[in-house]
Amino acid sequence: MSHEFHPDAQAFVARAKAVLDRSVEDLDAAAARKLQRARVVALERRPKRGRRAAWIGGLAAASLAALALVLWLAPPAPERQAAVPLEDFELITSVENVELAEDLDFYHWLADDDTTG
């Protein structure tokens, strides 16, 4: 909150403060005690923050910590496989490729034979 006032407002605030300060100094002892008792009663009626507020704050902090831990330790989502385009699927399932798959042992033997000599 800003305490910068217009110069006229500053003068008004200063005069009001001086008047209120003088009125407090002029109070008799009985009025001062009565005001003090009223202040104490008003403060007693104020709701107390007690243990419940601390308990709720602790529960919120623990919940956030547990959520952060779960999110940090959770396994990553599996990558989705891209769909095979129809042309590639046709190449894989063509008759020639099926014949190659049937003779796969022969092609492995041929590749091993070429590398050994």
From TrEMBL:
Residue ranges of the TM segments: 53-74
Keywords: Membrane, Transmembrane, Transmembrane helix
Domain of life: Bacteria
Name recorded for this polypeptide: DUF3619 family protein
